[in-house]
Amino acid sequence: MTPAGAAQILVFFGLVLLATKPMGAYMVRVFDGERTLLHPVLRPIECLLYRVARVDEGSDMRWTAYGLAVLTFSLAGGLVTYALLRLQGSLPLNPQHFGGKEMTPDLAFNTAMSFMTNTNWQNYVPETTVSCFSNMVALAMHNWMSAATGIAVAIAIVRGFARQAADGLGNFWVDVTRATVYVLLPLCLVIAPVLVWQGVPQNFGSYVAAATLEGAEQTIPQGPVASQEAIKMVGTNGGGFFNANSSHPYENPTPLSNLVELLAIFVIPAGLTHTFGKMVRNTRQGWALFGAMTVMFAVGVSVCYRAEARGNPSIADLGVVSQASDEQPGGNMEGKEQRFGIGASALFAVVTTDASCGAVNSMHDSYTPVGGAVPLANIMCDEVIFGGVGAGLYGMLMYAVIAVFIAGLMVGRTPEYVGKKIDRYEVRMAVLTVLILVANILLFSALATNANLPPGSTPVAITDESTEHGAALMGPTARWNHVNNSSPSLYDGATWNNVNNPAAHGFSEILYAFSSATGNNGSAFAGLTGNTPFYNVTLGLAMLIGRFLMLVPLLAMAGSLGRKKLVPASAGTLATDSVTFAFWLMAVVLIIGGLEYFCALALGPIVEHFQMVGRVLL
Prior knowledge:
Elements: H1 3-31, H2 39-53, H3 63-86, H4 105-116, H5 132-162, H6 172-198, E1 208-211, E2 217-220, H7 225-234, H8 255-279, H9 283-310, H10 313-317, H11 341-354, H12 369-380, H13 391-411, E3 416-417, E4 420-421, H14 424-449, H15 503-518, H16 533-562, H17 579-612
Antiparallel strand pairs: 1-2, 3-4
Helix pairs in contact: 1-8, 1-11, 2-6, 3-4, 3-5, 3-16, 4-5, 4-16, 5-6, 5-7, 5-16, 6-7, 6-8, 8-9, 8-11, 9-11, 9-12, 9-17, 11-12, 12-15, 12-17, 13-14, 13-17, 14-15, 14-16, 15-16, 15-17
């Protein structure tokens, strides 16, 4: 780690801290329907939308109606997106004449589910697959819709904790409108011009043919990049206009644009912790959640940065200087842009996986085993370390319910949180959500790892000949079929499909893919060839389950809490607005995640790390 790299991280988080309180307080006023500085301009737009949609601004919804509205709104948008993608050849703003040939039925399904669920996983090369119209309407539409839905659901769940003896959680149509008009739109209107100023294109031009210095011809894509870049970051969507995402100089050209994009990812999730504290009338509760998230973020970025700065010891053993100096950056620069370096790349990798954004300015697949394990672990913690817009807050509240329940068992008291008794129903809904997510990741990963085996095939031991050790990575009973397209003979003549890396890293790619899909993140270990019918369908299903089977139980929990009355704190009440509780909450998140995923991680990043340092586990 270098002083400059550490300073970048400190400056970034200092700016996040400065923005948290004003952003959180602003969102309280927005969702309580109070007047803000933007009301003279935006209130007429809000009222017009209510009139057009025939929404009664004063009506309230029970959790069942709220959940049904979320599902209806999302699924209808997904169907429209699927149709637009399949029909893009007949639609305008298509200078490259892309059509249904580029967007096949299974790929269109995966893409529609991806953007509908705020995942933005991309099993395609955007600049050679989707038209400007598809980018702006079919896809960017969901950058707004899915982000606003996440914020609305978070506010509804917070109301469940804040209200007493109330049957409703608010009005979804009002909440999603206010999230769009008052929160997402103003931020994007500020960020997009800054990105244009820094060199991000915003046009409808045809692709440009240019000659390189070597005399070759290169096609340079064009399009409305800045507007989509702004909402992809603010809404923690992550889907890039270009396949290289935020490592592409047209999406992220300068260190300043990199800082702006990082701040855009965290500003709403961090602010929502203060929103929670204000709405439950105890801002210390919000700062306790913020503190737990901050510590986990700091640990993650420190571990990732240190691992990448140290690099691969096998390279150092060859006599290559791997220490940072005035002449070279040192460490592991594979897959990273020189204009960002290791510090800003590691920071971006941690922020984007903390926040379920999925945008990348470096290739996670090229990270060291420990460095790559940090983004994977962030997702496996259900992305509650600030998390996506809305999703991080209600995910952390889910863990808060579990934490006070476990603490109650230890002292023999009925658990309480922010003045509400936590009964069996709330605990069951929280635990059900955790189990759904972990089962989704592990079962789909197991299915993908063992798919397409020919009948009667006999697995064999696998050796990694890419290292000087050439040691066996797996035992003779292993069944790994998705590894190394160039090695078709390891399974009695069966072809191994879809992963371009061997053994442990190949499994890490599969595990990362389904973790990212379930966590609605969208980043990837990009060695996985995901654009196949099998992966398009299974990843699409994993995204749906990860999004909606998490929302419904938590809305049910919030509906139950909203009907309860507040109970006064007593001498035996656990203080949930303290530093002690923040560390307890953090411990619960990490322990549950460790118990759920340690065995899977041991087959991937952990064994790969020991392989790298020369201590291969047999």
